[in-house]
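TA notes, week 10

Several of you asked for a full example with nothing omitted. So below is the full record: structure tokens for the whole chain, then the designed sequence directly under it. When grading your own attempts, check the secondary structure regions first.
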């Protein structure tokens, strides 16, 4: 189940970007712990939220108008497209200008998409 949570490296970056949403788990000392009602947000700089991927995508959409579309390829791989709802015209499939890299799993594509959204916001 831990693979459903964003890794600690990206979670740490999101914390520095202002991510303060309630989560089912958090990182403490590099270990993931399940909250069971514990509100990590009230306890120090050493506790880092461990959001689910879905929560991260919602946060980027609600706070930065960025939406990630995970796309299966004809070669049975996965790729993604980031849509900036604040600037881009909304496309319908087939999408143009998608990420040029093919990922073996949709989860790999999701993590890469989150990394790119982080970079886009930090610019």
């Amino acid at each position: 189940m831990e693979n459903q949570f964003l890794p600690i490296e990206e979670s740490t970056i999101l914390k520095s970007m202002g991510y303060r949403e309630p989560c089912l788990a958090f990182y403490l000392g590099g270990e993931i712990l399940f909250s069971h009602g514990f509100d990590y947000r009230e306890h120090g700089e050493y506790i880092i939220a461990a959001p689910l991927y879905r929560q991260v995508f919602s946060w980027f959409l609600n706070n930065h108008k960025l939406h990630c579309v995970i796309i299966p390829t004809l070669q049975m791989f996965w790729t993604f497209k980031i849509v900036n709802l604040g600037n881009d015209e909304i496309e319908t499939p087939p999408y143009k200008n998608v990420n040029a890299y093919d990922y073996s799993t949709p989860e790999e594509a999701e993590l890469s998409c989150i990394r790119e959204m982080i970079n886009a916001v930090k610019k």
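The chain has two domains: 1-51, 53-123. Use that as a sanity check on your answer.
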